[in-house]
Design goal:
- 36% of the residues lie in helices and 24% in strands.
- The protein is α/β, with parallel strands linked by helices and 489 residues long.
- The protein folds into two domains: 1-356, 3-Layer(aba) Sandwich (Rossmann fold), CATH 3.40.50; 358-485, GMP Synthetase, Chain A, domain 3, CATH 3.30.300.
- The relative contact order is 0.11.
Amino acid sequence: MSPFARKISLTISKQAATALSSQESILRFLLAKAVHTEFGKDHGFAQLKSHGDFKSAVPIRDYEGHRPYIDQILEGKSNILWPDKPKYLAKTSGTTSGVKYIPITKESIPNHFGTARNALFNYMHRTGKSAFLEGKMIFLSGSPQLTQTAGIPTGRLSGIVNHMVPKWLKSNQMPSLATNCIEDWEEKLDRIVEETHDRDMRLISGIPPWVKMYYERLLEKTGKSTIREIFPQLQVFVYGGVNYEPYRASLEALMGPEVDTLETYPASEGFIAFQDDINEEGLLLNTQSGIYYEFVPASEIHTESPSRLSLAEVELGVNYAILLSTNAGLWAYDIGDTVSFTSLDPYRLRVTGRTAHYISAFGEHVIGQEVEKAMQTAIAQSGGSVVEFTVAPQVNPASGLPHHEWYIEWDRKPEDVGAFAQILDQSLRQLNIYYEDLISGSVMRPLKVQNVSREGFVRYMKSQGKLGGQNKVPRLSNDRKIVDQLELG
């Protein structure tokens, strides 16, 4: 596979150098391809020639904005958002829309599976490490069992992608199909441990908190001290969906030495970016895979007339909401993520948070990137490590001023939790001037840490039907709906 990996890596480098012209071409292709769809006719695609025209004709929409068109697809109609019918529907749960059905078309399939493949082969060529192909690989994902919706196969994106794994790779893939189809996460995890604890695992992929559960149960099963003792040839951990930093210390302690990490940025709406260089922090934007990107300054996303920038107009270090127009038929689609560019040559970014996940109970507008950086600082200075955490406002405390409360499940509790809280607070004050002004102006008091009981977040996610797979605990909430259901320890 080495020549193939080299070819893919060289192609990725060439495509990164022509990102801007490719984006212009993709927009023209998308508009021409969908000109005769219901959406295209409703928005005058035949007359649109430029990004400026597109902005004027097509407003920013989230899933709710697309729902009238998606409902027509669910009724069995064709040529609604994209020519013909979707090949699949990716079923996902939203915080405001309930169950969402995201179309995946014949044209968009290569974006999902091809990008994952390219990320791995690029890693192989860049590092010279190919041993992961010679052993077993595990992808902790949703069930590959699909149902039918208006005659369209429907399921979790990770389950859909499972059907695209080529035959030469399936022989190395774990867990077994029967185990992968188990819906109950804890039962599934126990079965995965039974199937894999004595196998030659070389690559492990999944969302960090669920992989951590897998590691802990493996160690419990085997009595070993680290995952490397169980899987001595383990080479790479592939992850995405959440910031790795809050989990790094505990996962590296579990894994043991010399395991590479490779970050990806997949979503049901499209595979957006991946780490093209394991020594670089940012993720390379996937600019030639059927997605046209727009960027809205995060401070403007909820305003009446926000700026909509093309890739050519972005700047380093600015927090943007990211919009996607895709060859699956999504148009100026707000996926709810915020990103910040770490490089403009090539275009690399990092995910900084969610547009819906913030705290501004008092005008502070604290975002996910800030709380994760504060947590990273506190962990580095205290020696503690966390399993999971979330933050919520306490607007009406029993006594004293209102404040933020950090609900933390500890992997290793620091000796002085009060000192840990002080480091968190000071770090957040440095990162967010509005928060600093409210504290120094005695509108708020410094934050308070609440200790969550062992596996408290697991029990919460299970109660919501969101245990395992691609589900994530929100870092921030502007209310107390989550934290009021957590068990304190």
